[in-house]
Amino acid sequence: MGSKLFNYDIFSETQDELIEKVFSMDKVNIVSGNPEILNLGLHDEKILNLFNDEKSIIIPDGIGTVIASKIVKNPVKEKIAGVEVMERIVEKCSITNKSIYLLGASQEVVDKCEDVLKEKYPGINICGKHNGFFDMENCDDIIKEIDVKNPYALFIAMGAPRQEIFIMKYMDKLPCSIYMGVGGSFDTISGKTNRAPKWMINCGMEWLYRSIKDPKRVKRLGVIPKFLFKVIKSN
Ligand code: UDP
Fold first, then answer.
1. Phi/psi at 10 (5° precision)
2. Can you give the pTM of this predicted structure?
3. Helices in 12-161 by DSSP H: which ranges?
4. Does any domain span residue 69?
5. Residue 1 in domain
6. Of 165, 178, 184, whose CA–CA distance to 109 is shortest?
7. Which residues of the chain have pLDDT under 70?
8. Nearest-5° angle of CA 179, CA 181, CA 185?
């Protein structure tokens, strides 16, 4: 039983418990539930249904979601960052001989991301990769490749809502066990962008760091107070 936010069931245990649960499921879609992503579902019924599907686990990714869970007096145990979950899954796959596929970002970034992960997790089987700039209505070749290579985990770094649409369209057609939309995580892992310093992450200020580094993101920040306002109103 998670933390209820609107109709969402937010995973409210620890990161360790999440990893254990993810690897015990036959098919799972991990949703990085930050206010921007959760807000998408409030405006799009298909995305809402995907997030509320029994195969989906919504993780409290971001201080906005953690605060929201406190407002509804059903606090999550801890913030769980999507990029950290991705790395935990890669690590576990490298130890247990399970393959992964990287789908998303530019060709340069996905190539570098592959190199970094191979260096950091020796033995990891990255059975395939593809950049995230393709026509989703005409991508049979990519779907066929993923199907044939049959990765255990498929990471999709194409930003929202593109990655959610991809998961909606193809999750049931593909044989992978773990699906995870990871936004800009390939950029972070490849070193194209940096995560905030640890002290900023710990006090929930990562959003501020990302906005300073990339001012184009500032207008996306408006969604956090709007989301919290909706939470307060619905409470
Ligand atoms: N991207 C992609 N295909 C597209 C548009 C974007 O693969 O058609 C990639 C982009 O290169 C970047 C990621 O999606 O790596 C989006 O990152 P963003 O910072 O928007 O995601 P966030 O972490 O904020 O969810």
1. -90, 130
2. 0.94
3. 15-24, 35-43, 45-52, 63-71, 82-96, 107-120, 140-149
4. yes
5. no
6. 184
7. 1
8. 120
Q: What counts of helices (H) and strands (E) characterise the chain?
A: 12, 8
Provide the terminal-to-terminal Cα distance of the chain, rounded to the nearest Å: 19
In-domain check, residue 70: yes
Q: Which domain holds residue 174?
A: 9-234
Q: Structurally, how many domains does the chain consist of?
A: 1
Q: What's the confidence (pLDDT) of residue 205?
A: 85
CB of 166 within 6 A of ligand 1: the answer is no
Q: What is residue 196's predicted lDDT score, i.e. its pLDDT? A: 87
> Cβ(184) to ligand 1 under 6 A?
yes
pLDDT at 213: 85
Indicate if ligand 1 lies below 6 Å from the C-beta of 161.
no
Atom of ligand 1 nearest to the CA of 193: 19
Residue 3 lies in a domain: no
Nearest CA owner, ligand 1 atom 17: 184
* Ligand 1 centroid distance, CA of 182 (Å): 9
Q: How far is the CA of 159 from the centre of ligand 1 (A)?
A: 4
